[in-house]
Every structure is written in structure tokens, then in C-alpha cells.
Amino acid sequence: MTDTRHLSGRKEELAANLAALEERISAACAAAGRKRDDVTLIVVTKTYPASDVRILSGLGVRHVAENRDQDAAPKAAACADLPLTWHFVGQLQTNKVRSVVSYADVVQSVDRAKLVTALSRDAVRAERELGCLIQVALDADEGEGAGRGERGGVGVGGVEELAARVAEAPGLRLDGLMTVAPLTGAFAGRQQAAFERLMDLSTVLRAAHPAANMVSAGMSSDLEQAVAAGATHVRVGTAVLGVRPRLG
Ligand SMILES: *Cc1c(COP(=O)(O)O)cnc(C)c1O
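That is the input. Now the predicted structure with pyridoxal-5'-phosphate docked in place:
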């Protein structure tokens, strides 16, 4: 017989963390006068094992995210029987695109034309429709056009053109925008202002692409500011799974 005691301990831990997180999200929605249903939780499972993903699924989590294909591909395969939506949120090299397209439902880190071309080619080949978010780098110099941020993302000036490319690309569906609060530049330490800037960009985007209404912003440390600004999706890792060993 397998010893499952450690797994039931982990289940209790994750359940308690999810309950505490749920309180934070509900309180943030209430404070912002928003309905709880307007914010979707995505649990970032990077660096944690497939067994944790399975427990989370059993606890009602429906969206998970990963940032490295090497870890995500085997994990997604091990969890293929679960009713999960997989988001890819990491910087993506074109040589990993074919693998990512085989399990990801949404790629949140679309930040350059070459990546759009590769995602479209492999989505068509796999006969899948892939959701795409444009990752916006709010630390890139706004005057720089399509300049890229330190943690990936296209500069504000490049969003519209890249969104149009995604919208036209076979196999891809333009779902909206994503950002990571910048550590440097004008928005450093000003998460809510950064997320409000993302919301303004979303308003502009939706004028041209009404269905592209996802706004993915906010992590363990700043989800309240993201909900206050109007985010539709928060991406939370540490607050659910614990502090990661320093690589994710
Ligand atoms: C790791 C990661 C998160 C989650 O961060 P936490 O601080 O652990 O909540 C969210 N978004 C992206 C893009 C990430 O890489």
C-alpha cells in the first residue's frame, strides 16, 4: 500500500491557502464594488509537482499556469485527465512553441511578431485554437515603439500592431492583455498605477477587438491592486503553493 499521509497533509495545506486567498480576492472585489465572479483565479504551479496540480484540481481550481516548457510539458501530460485550462506565462522561445501549443489553452506572454507567426503555424498544424494575450512591458520606454521590457513583453507603442497580427493569424484568438508589475521605470513600486495603465490600454484594445476582454494582472503580493484596477484574471503562485526555490 502506498503511504498517502504526506499527500493528505499537502491537501490540507493547499486547501487552507486557497481558502485564505479566496478571502483576499473576495475582500478586494467587495472593496472595488466588483462581483466576485468577475475575477478568475489562475494558480501558478511552476516548480511544483504534478501531484500538487492534481490536489488543486480536486479542490476546485480550474486554471493553472506555467512559465517553463521543460517543466510544464510533462506536468500537463500527467494531468491530461483533469478539467484544467493551462496558461503559459513565461518568456517563450520559438523552438518551444510546438510543444507549448500541444498543451496550452492560452499563451499570456505574446510579445513579438515572430512568436505570433510560430504560434499560428503550430496551432493550425495541431488543429487547435489558441488563446493569446499580449504581454505589455510597462517598464519599456513608451517612446521606443515596440521596445521590450526586462521581464518580456512588448512596449506600449507596439501593442496595437501586435494585437492586429494575432487577430488576423489563423489558429489564434486574441483574448486580451497581460502584465507583470515592473520593478524598474516610472511604475516601479506603483503597482496600482501600472495596472490602471494596463486597463486604459485594454479599453483601447477592446474598441478594435471587443472580444479581447481579458486583463491578466496581479500576483501574490499585488492582487488587491490588480482587482482594484479592474483585472479579470489574477495569477497567484506563492500564496497558494508556498515560497519557491529561487528559479521560477
Ligand atoms: C511566477 C509568476 C506569477 C506568480 O507569482 P507569485 O508571486 O508566486 O504569486 C505570476 N505571473 C507570472 C508571469 C509568473 O511568472
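The pocket of pyridoxal-5'-phosphate is lined by residues 44, 46, 67, 89, 180, 219-221, 235-239, 248 (CB under 6 Å).
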